[in-house]
Amino acid sequence: MNAKRILALILTAILLGSSLVACNDNPDTPDTPDVSDTDTPSSTPEDTTPEDKGLVLDVTDFGGTNLRVHGMSMERNYGYYSNDDIWIESDSADPFASAVYKRMQDCINKYNFGVTYTDSQWPNKERSEYVAGGLDLVDVMFDAWGGMYNAALAGELLDLKDVTTMDLSNEWYDQNAIADLSIANRTFYTCGDISITDEKGLIALYFNKTMAKNKSLESPYELVANNQWTWDKFTEMCRAAAEDVNGDGLDEDDIVGMFTVSGHYPNFMLAVGEKYATLDADGKPEYTWLDTSDAITKLETVAGFMIEYGTVYNGHTYPAPAGNIWGYGRAKFASGKHLFTFGGSNVITEFADMEDDFGIIPMPKWNAEQSRYYHTVDTSTAFFCLPNTKVDTTELGYMIEYFSYEGLNTITPTFKEKMLKRRYAQDSESGDMLDLIYSSKAFDIGHNCNWNDVVGLGRTQIQTGRIPKLSGFNRVKESVKKNIEEDYLDYLNVGKEVPADPDAVTEPAE
Ligand SMILES: [Ca+2]
Ligand SMILES: [Ca+2]
After folding, report:
1. Ligand 2 center from residue 360 Cα (angstroms)
2. Contacts of 415 (CB under 8 A, 6+ apart)
3. What does CATH list as the number for 58-200+380-421?
4. Ligand nearest 173 Cα, by number?
5. Which ligand is nearest to the CA of 83?
């Protein structure tokens, strides 16, 4: 038996295994069968219906069809969330580009389907057009996930859970995103090993290691190791580092503890354990913003820090060149002016020529009692969805399963291990921190849906140097709850057939 045949068998067994898990109540059934078992399925016979086998056999050859993927072009968000991980023209000496090529080749060689990639600045516009016109031109669309909630409500997206040939419980789909963002337990968009956009957009902190050493500050790595990486410690370090070097008040030549922007405050709040809303077991959002005295203290403390003149440089408040203020802040960090800066792992390349040493560190916990870290993905990051233009998603579901599964084997590990850890990180601790950061992903459905612009309400206050007032949030509270109620009901039913009126007379089709 040649290697290709063995791989095909393993794959068939894996697909068979995953399709069985979907209808199997036994949690012990393995997702991935042991390689030695591939000739004899390890699942129990009563789970193996002939239909399951037939379905798997049916998709062993896709007849050269293409999985058509569309994403955001380089004009959007300075290109940070474009997909460079779906399609490539030829193999490359670059490990990541080569992994992209390998995945494409594996799809062709093992299942005989190709991949095409197109992009545009505003995929959402095309999606609306395609859905309105019933144009089946794109299979998978990547777009900023922050806006996909509205697209789902408008009926533009398919519920991934309705695609019978996809099993969202597989490890190549992001289980945190699915759990945190599936209103009414419906999943219209998510992320996973299909792409590294979510890894790129996962926001953490970078710190200037040389500066920390020169200013005799504690090692953030040791603080993490000793469970002392807390809000108090983080802000204390920022204050200790800040220095008005020319004695004339804050300007761009000064050293500050942290560069940030007002819009970063929900990420800090999530890091200290506060969300706008959470989902209950039915997937119903519950508005949780500032619902305890602790939460109010956290908001006042976080916002108070973010407006601390001289300690923090808020790119939304203080003069920064017009345009890419985020890039401006990172350039300042790279030139040794800021102790901390924030960003996804997509910005690490910008520190490659930095003279000082830098490291990666989690967002701080509120205190040592907080049980875990929380890191979220920038809402501008591309997640994937399926435009609601398809009647039959059987074949498409299988292709997404396989493309994602191959991403788990090739794309994600190459990006994390070879690129981030080996090429760009400067020390082994950064690699450990990345593992910690990646394993603590969380999403706030309230930030995502932003009912009554509750996110903007706080951001505007911070931008103008004020701590957001509780009264402002209280004023919109009842309206937010009402909107949640309405959206939940819409979400339950969107895209589902309305039960036929038994009294209605149906005209026969011509
Ligand atoms: Ca990913
Ligand atoms: Ca100054």
Report:
1. 27
2. 85, 96, 99, 196, 199
3. 3.40.190.10
4. 1
5. 1
